[in-house]
Amino acid sequence: MPYKNALSGELPIQVKVFPDVMSHHYISTTNELQNLLHQLRDVPVIAYDTEFISENRYYPQLCLIQIAAGEIQALIDPFSVGSLEAFWELLCDDRHEIVVHACRSEMEFCYRAIHRLPNKLFDVQVAAGFLCNDYPAGYGTLLERFLKISLSKAESRTVWDKRPLTALQIEYALGDVHYLEQLSQTLQTRLAEKKRIGWYANEMERIKQFLQNSFETPRWRSLPKISALKPRELAILREIWFWRENIAKKRNLPSSRILRDDLVVELARRGTSDEKRIAAVRGMQRSDAPRILPEISAAVNRALALSPEEYPPPSDRFSFPQYSVMAQLLYAALCSICQQNNISPQLVGGLGDIRELIAAELGTLPPEIKPSLLKGWRSELVGSLLGDLINGRTTIQIKRNSPENPLSFVKG
Q: What pLDDT, in 10s, does the model give residues 235-254?
């Protein structure tokens, strides 16, 4: 059955292959990279993607970089090309718009290399969230929806660190960037038609700031179930976390392979450096206990030696009533507003954001916290209306004849 496109009506999806799959540049030396960067210097738009392996590693291993810019199609082999610093600098020099899909991984490689992110960054996944109810959507889904193109995903689970690459791997890798610029142009046109370019730009700045913070800030505060820990316990947790991360980084293993998150939190809660008591915690009965128990004990002792002034401050995850019934009702209203405006509710906010808004309106949220739904484009789209619902300035009516979109909002 053909897929119905909102702009062009019902059209069959085109299954694309690349008969010119060998017409790309394969960049495997420093000189070839320099020549490619010279060719890219004056192009306005660069589509960029990566292939990497993250399983059983501390940092993802970059295996391939894909580039499409005008007539240029290139694959960069990070295993043989030498330093990539000049490439990352090119992405961040503000002369090009960098087009990506789901930018986090691509931006992490860039940021870890030069501690910068591109200013002119266009993420087709985020842009599409402002135009349809599906977010986050895969690249193939977006191509089918907006360009009526279908790509083979036969190599999505391939082994990217083996050389030479096969023709199928090359076709798959080039497919991930070949249509990115065309897709971005279509999305930008649609955003302009709906007057949402400003919304998108605001959201991308927020995302870039979030990514930069996540790349820079030690993530020990993101461990689960730590909001109730006291400052002394947080100090212990922090020391154990840094011990774990250092070991994981040296051994190039996932952190959880060194010590699970729940065990880090439990050891911090118990607050003991006694090796026997540490060993008695369920989950600590392991073959490497003779080696790690003294190291964990030393980490706990480092925390215990701190003065109270050196303890980390309590978690800033403020607690307030959950308002479960009201939150569910208002989330249904949020979803209805999003459906009426053809925008993804997952991009706008979830139940946690709704509860935060309710707490602000009812005076149980700390005054220094401003709910995300009352900021920027979210306030314009849903925040003000939800605030009116909470305060009785707007009511909800159910439309019997519109079961797919049954809610309407009446002022007064």
A: 999 999 999 999 999 999 99
pLDDT value, residue 404 = 83
Residues 158 and 69 in one domain: yes
Give the pLDDT of residue 155.
65
Q: Residues 225, 193: one domain?
A: no
- Separation in Å, CA 354 to CA 23, 186, 331: 51, 32, 7
pLDDT value at position 45?
98
Taking the C-alpha atoms of residue 260 and residue 8, their distance in angstroms, rounded to an integer, is 51
Residue 248 lies in a domain: yes
Number of domains in the chain: 3
- Quote the domain boundaries for residue 175: 3-216
Q: Which of 310, 345, 375 is the last residue of a domain?
A: 310
Is residue 175 over pLDDT 90? yes
Q: Are residues 255 and 140 in the same domain?
A: no
Cα separation, 334 vs 336, in Å, equals 5
Does 155 share its domain with 230?
A: no
* ω into 308 cis (within 30 of 0): no
At 258-275, the pLDDT tens digits run 999 999 999 999 999 999
How far out from the chain centre does Cα 187 lie?
Answer: 20
User: Are residues 192 and 104 part of one domain?
Assistant: yes
Confidence of residue 14 (pLDDT cuts 50, 70, 90): low
Dihedrals phi, psi of 3, to nearest 5 degrees: -85, 130
List the Cα angle 339/340/341 in 5-degree steps.
90
Has residue 410 got a pLDDT over 90?
A: yes
304, 362: one domain: no
Q: What is the pTM for the complete model shown? A: 0.89
Q: Let me know if 351 is exposed, middle or buried by CB neighbors in 10 A (0-12, 13-18, 19+).
A: middle
Cα 341 to chain centroid distance, Å, stands at: 24
pLDDT tens for 54-110 read 999 999 999 999 999 999 999 999 999 999 999 999 999 999 999 999 999 999 999
